[in-house]
Give the backbone structure.
Amino acid sequence: MQISFRLGVVLILLAAAAWGLGGVAGQFLFQFYDVGAPWLITVRQVIAGVVFLGYLLCRGENIFGVLRDKEDRRDLLAFAFLGLLGAQFGFYYTISLCNAATATVLQYTAPIFVMLWMAWKSRSLPEGREMVGIFFALVGVFLIATHGSLDSVVLSPAALGMGIISAISLAFYTVMPFRLLKKYSTTLIIGWGQLLSGGFLCLFVNPFEPSGHWDVAAVAAMAYLILGATVLSYTVFLVGLKVVGATKASLISCAEPLASIVAVVLWLKTPLTVEDLVGMACIIMTVVLLSLPKK
């Protein structure tokens, strides 16, 4: 089914909101239930992959075709390990090392890497609207996460390194799967990506030994991480990506911190500051700029 540009933007926004809430849920589990980041990420990836591929099997679809073609198999492995795993492991592990705001600031330097890649590939500079969008997106995320003060971002070398890895991986995740998505469904590519990356982590983490302590609230947060912030968000994002394009998708998804801020205010009763409001306005400006179709 062919979807419009505006619907593609809406889908990217929905995915960003789901990711934003996922970061909040992850920090909730890390801070209040002592859940280890490697265990959480491993279980999240494996279960999500099983859900995706199981759904396709129930529909009678062939899920192994992508593994038979050498070029497709190579691209799938690159997407799973260099893109999806790096972005997700880097993001949640950075949260566990510092906080969700700092992790978001680091990961959302990804549009810069996407822009540089697309500019190099086309041998041309990004259009003016994209340059303005990058500026507003980065300023907005910076203000929300730091309130305009570099002194409030205090990072360990491990946190800084993992945050940059997550940004580069997110950029790769955004531009990598176009060829595969022309041949195979979004659900298939995401399912194998999740299962392969989670299976790899199982070599180092035992998913059958739960980390931390659990009650109903913790289980609910984990269930959301798997279903809402993984299964739904990745599917919606890649569907929108086909229409919107790599640079715009990466920029529009900077609305993720906005969802995180709203969730933190409603859930943890954290008041918004002037810097938060200005940052939110910058991100909304980015969304508006990139939602307008070219004349």
Observations:
- The mean pLDDT is 82.
- Residues 17 and 259 are 5 Å apart (CA to CA).
- DSSP finds 14 helices and no strands in the chain.
- The radius of gyration is 18 Å.
